[in-house]
């Protein structure tokens, strides 16, 4: 049987890294076993779902390198891949379950339910639905006036047992599962019904999702059995935690895939890092390609322990990818949009070509593509702003005025404006003045780049050009006085 797996994001928010990791694991398993990967949209929450969120979620999946064989935007043999277009199908299944006695109408009002929950709690009984309307037969129920919901009749007594690919045998006693709602009073489906019907109709063979959904699984299994459909294999993935051991949330930093893209992470790096959250390709392998991941991945190898999302390790990995897995031309192509965003306008080709002279040096130093713009600001902007801390620390030291004057004099004499002659001139300056490289070079660096942290000095001046370099040295000297 061809494996068929899916990811089903809800467009009520952005693409969380946990959802992205689940999508990635489903994609890896499908690709490893020659299966089908499906993307459907669980948009039954029509009030909170938006097309903007859906667009950003799909864009995030594609940016990570995840393609899908069926689903939204690519189509497939099952017609509609958005739940909002399948409400009639869910109502049809609900009616069939009622007709066969696997579900029933419940006329209890919210106020009645709240009162009975309180009474159950006071008596020490489980607070779930007490099954009052379950005893009504179908003709009797249809004769009752008023609004109603449809509840699934959980088999009692009973136990749902299944083998989870990650957790092994899992058992749920039906005593702890009440008769849950599958159709609301307005006829809209709940998550349990819509998700199960979709999995049955789309022929899903494996359901790999977060362990937070585990309590819902016995409900979905019983619904599947009531529909007389084959049950999928389940794999409940460990949740992502922050370094404090708590479930990953905004308090730990960015959780949206789009935020990582925005600040300059490479999709290859995030793909690689998410792959390692709960799974390992091998004891020695940390950085690997999508092809290598596909060749090695299996859901049965996923750990059941929580996975810790470490932003510091992700940033380190991104730096490794930037330095060791991008050619200089690829780096330049990917960095340019971030540099233009920093500047706030498109860059002329000649300006970017001027910056390209120091890009290899920048590539060795940055961990994020968003760091490229600040590193190259002295080349990209006509007017620079001096970093306050750099100015206070470097430019207010004794003798800086003399260093700048001497640099202007010595550099004016450099006929061949290249890195080597520039270095020779400035090293001659510190020898002649009898000062350290730090006292001689740092004032020149701050004067020209605006900061004490920049690409290597001599290469930076060569990229700047003679006249621009001398002008900035004069401007800084003027600011001193």
What are the defining features of this structure?
single chain; 481 residues; mainly alpha; three-stranded parallel β-sheet; three-stranded antiparallel β-sheet; elongated
Describe the 3D structure:
The structure is a single chain. The protein is mainly α. 47% of the residues lie in helices and 10% in strands. The strands form 5 sheets. The protein has a 3-stranded parallel sheet with strand order 1-2-3. Helix 17 runs antiparallel to helix 21 and helix 18 (419-433) packs across helix 19. The radius of gyration is 31 Å and the shape is elongated.
Q: What value does the Rg take, in angstroms?
A: 31 Å
Distance between the termini: 81 Å
**What portion of residues is helical?**
40-55%
Across the major sheet, the strand order is: 1-2-3
User: What would you call the structural class?
Assistant: mainly alpha
Average per-residue pLDDT, rounded, comes to 94
User: Number of helical segments?
Assistant: 21
The total count of strands amounts to 12
Query: What is the global morphology?
Result: elongated
Low-confidence stretches: none
State the major sheet. Answer: 3 strands, parallel
Give the percentage of residues in beta strands. Answer: 5-15%
Q: What is the compact description of this entry?
A:
With 481 residues, the protein is mainly alpha-helical. Helices cover 47% and strands 10% of the residues.
Give the SSE map.
Layout: E1 4-7, H1 17-32, E2 36-39, H2 51-63, E3 70-71, H3 87-99, E4 103-106, H4 110-122, H5 138-143, E5 149-152, E6 159-164, E7 168-173, E8 181-183, H6 191-201, E9 206-210, H7 217-226, E10 233-237, E11 240-241, H8 257-262, H9 267-275, H10 290-296, E12 307-308, H11 311-324, H12 328-343, H13 349-356, H14 359-363, H15 372-380, H16 388-395, H17 400-412, H18 419-433, H19 437-449, H20 457-464, H21 466-480
Parallel strand pairs: 1-2, 2-3, 9-10, 11-12
Antiparallel strand pairs: 4-5, 5-8, 6-7
Helix pairs in contact: 1-10, 6-7, 9-11, 12-15, 16-19, 17-18, 17-19, 17-21, 18-19, 18-20
């Amino acid at each position: 049987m061809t494996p068929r797996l899916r990811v089903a994001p809800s467009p009520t928010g952005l693409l969380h890294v946990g959802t992205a990791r689940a999508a990635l694991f489903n994609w890896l398993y499908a690709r490893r076993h020659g299966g089908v990967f499906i993307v459907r949209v669980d948009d039954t929450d029509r009030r909170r779902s938006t097309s903007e969120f859906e667009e950003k979620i799909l864009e995030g999946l594609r940016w990570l390198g995840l393609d899908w064989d069926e689903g939204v935007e690519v189509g497939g043999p099952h017609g509609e891949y958005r739940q909002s277009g399948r409400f009639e199908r869910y109502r049809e299944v609900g009616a069939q379950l009622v007709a066969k006695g696997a579900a029933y109408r419940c006329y209890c009002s919210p106020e009645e339910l709240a009162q009975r929950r309180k009474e159950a709690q006071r008596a020490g009984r489980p607070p779930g639905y007490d099954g009052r309307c379950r005893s009504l037969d179908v003709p009797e129920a249809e004769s009752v006036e008023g609004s109603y919901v449809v509840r699934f009749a959980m088999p009692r007594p009973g136990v749902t047992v299944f083998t989870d690919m990650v957790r092994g045998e899992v058992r749920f006693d039906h005593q702890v599962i009440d008769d849950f709602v599958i159709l609301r009073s307005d006829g809209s489906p709940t998550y349990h019904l819509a998700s199960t019907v979709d999995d049955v109709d789309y022929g899903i063979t494996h359901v790999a999702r977060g362990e937070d959904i585990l309590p819902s699984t016995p409900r979905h299994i019983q619904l599947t059995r009531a529909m007389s459909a084959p049950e999928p294999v389940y794999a409940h993935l460990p949740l992502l935690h922050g370094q404090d051991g708590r479930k990953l949330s905004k308090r730990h930093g960015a959780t949206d895939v789009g935020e990582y893209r925005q600040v300059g992470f490479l999709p290859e790096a995030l793909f690689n890092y998410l792959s390692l959250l709960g799974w390992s390709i091998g004891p020695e392998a940390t950085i690997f390609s999508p092809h290598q991941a596909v060749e090695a991945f299996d859901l049965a190898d996923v750990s059941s322990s929580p996975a810790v999302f470490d932003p510091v390790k992700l940033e380190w990995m991104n730096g490794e990818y930037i330095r060791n897995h991008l050619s200089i031309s690829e780096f330049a192509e990917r960095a340019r949009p971030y540099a233009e965003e920093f500047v706030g306008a498109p860059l002329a080709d000649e300006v970017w070509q001027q910056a390209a002279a120091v890009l290899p040096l920048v590539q060795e130093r940055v961990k994020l593509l968003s760091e490229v713009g600040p590193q190259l600001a002295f080349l990209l902007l006509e007017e620079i702003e001096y970093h306050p801390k750099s100015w206070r620390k470097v430019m207010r030291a004794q003798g800086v005025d003399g260093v700048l004057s001497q640099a202007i004099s010595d550099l004016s004499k450099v006929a061949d404006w290249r890195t080597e002659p520039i270095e020779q001139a400035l090293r001659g300056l510190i020898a002649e003045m009898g000062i350290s490289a730090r006292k001689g070079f740092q004032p020149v660096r701050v004067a020209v780049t605006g900061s004490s942290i920049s690409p290597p000095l001599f290469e930076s001046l060569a990229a700047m050009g003679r006249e621009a370099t001398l002008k900035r040295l004069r401007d800084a000297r003027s600011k001193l006085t």
